[in-house]
Amino acid sequence: MGLQENMQKEPVSRLAVREPVTAERETTLRQATTLMREGKLGCTVVIDQDGKPIGIFTESMLTQLLAENAAGIDEPIEKYMSEQWPWVRSTDPITDVLEAMELKNVRFLCVVDDDDRLIGLTGQKGLMEYIAEHFPGQVMVQRIGGKPYQQDREGA
Amino acid sequence: MSDQHFPSPEDFQDPLENYEPKTYDDPLEEALAEETVAAIRHEPYVSIPPDTPVHAAVEKLAGLHVACLLVEHDRKLVGVFSDRDVLERVSQEYDQLKDRPIQEIMTMHPFYVYETDSPAAALAVMAVAGFRHVPVLNLDDELVGIVSPQRVTAFLHSHFTS
């Protein structure tokens, strides 16, 4: 099967779904960004008492905040989070992730189960890994970050 | 004069006559292997000089709504500064760092690809090395662009059959 066909048939749960960084409404952005650094993740999902997502705060929103009001980092996340959080169900096809990335320009997508509970996060990185895995003969053999072959060659 | 014998063109046997070029089952795999990074859109890109203050770089990222700036000196790539660098190196200490030059904070020696590399090379930097933005250089090592995940997905889409 080709990649296109696989992406239409395989579910989002087939992608690398990462453990999310979560915070409550009152968590300060300083605390949230510390957690994001520790988790090496570019976003925090804000959840309610039942574990359901109510908003998202991403690294690009952090850049906007620092540029406009750097002192905001000590305020609660609730004040700056976006209540529009892009999501997919774990059973949706992978093409939904591709579309969200290309059309809505999102970097992170919350993966939820049938009861709308947050299972994890996926996004650009998960999708790139999936494509790379699909073409190991092309992608996994690449020389990364060096000189092109013609400049590498030694001797005659 | 030596009595050399040259075969006539009719006698010449092409050593590659039995060569069979590689075939691909998937048109996308063919594109990943046979095309070049130049086939992926890699412009426009935003670059800044290495002495740019951190606050100016952060304002540029925010103002232009881009995720990554290329730090360029004399048309050569010297580093990158992205949203992730803001998160990991700047956000908690912004007041102390905002007037420092970006070259002290940026990611040095970033992974890059040449415009003559295959698209698969750009994907490898993203999927294997884990960098979402890949600078593109020409063979004179001059900066010519950047490939982002959106641009890769647009490239993939363009090779999908509708």
Report on this model:
The complex is a heterodimer of chains A (156) and B (162). A 3-stranded mixed sheet of chain A has the order 1-2-3. In chain A, strands 4-5-6 form a 3-stranded mixed sheet. Chain A contains 7 helices and 6 strands. With 156 residues, chain A is of the alpha/beta class. The relative contact order of chain A is 0.19. Chain B has helices at 27-34, 54-64, 83-90, 94-97, 119-129, 149-158; strands spanning 47-48, 68-73, 76-82, 107-108, 113-114, 134-137, 143-147. Chain B starts with 26 loop residues before the first helix and ends with a helix. At the A-B interface, helix 2, helix 3, helix 4, helix 5 and helix 6 of A face helix 1, helix 2, helix 3, helix 5 and helix 6 of B.
| Count of separate DSSP helical elements of chain B | 6
Computed structural class of chain A: alpha/beta
Rg of chain A, please? Answer: 19 Å
Q: Which term fits the overall shape of chain A?
A: globular
Mean model confidence by pLDDT of chain A: 87
Strand order in the sheet with the most strands of chain A: 1-2-3
> Share of helix among residues of chain A?
25-40%
Mean pLDDT of chain B, as a whole number? 90
Kindly report the spatial arrangement of strands forming the biggest sheet of chain B. Answer: 1-2-3-4
* Class computed from helices, strands and strand pairing of chain B: alpha/beta
> What fraction, in percent, of the residue positions of chain B are helical?
25-40%
Q: What quaternary form is this? A: heterodimer
For the record, give the distance between the C-alpha atoms at the N and C termini of chain A, rounded to a whole number: 44 Å
Q: Give the ordered list of helices and strands of chain A.
A: HEHEEHEHEEHHH
What is the tally of beta strands of chain A?
6
Low-confidence stretches of chain A: none
Report the sheet with the most strands of chain B, covering strand number, pairing sense and barrel closure.
4 strands, mixed
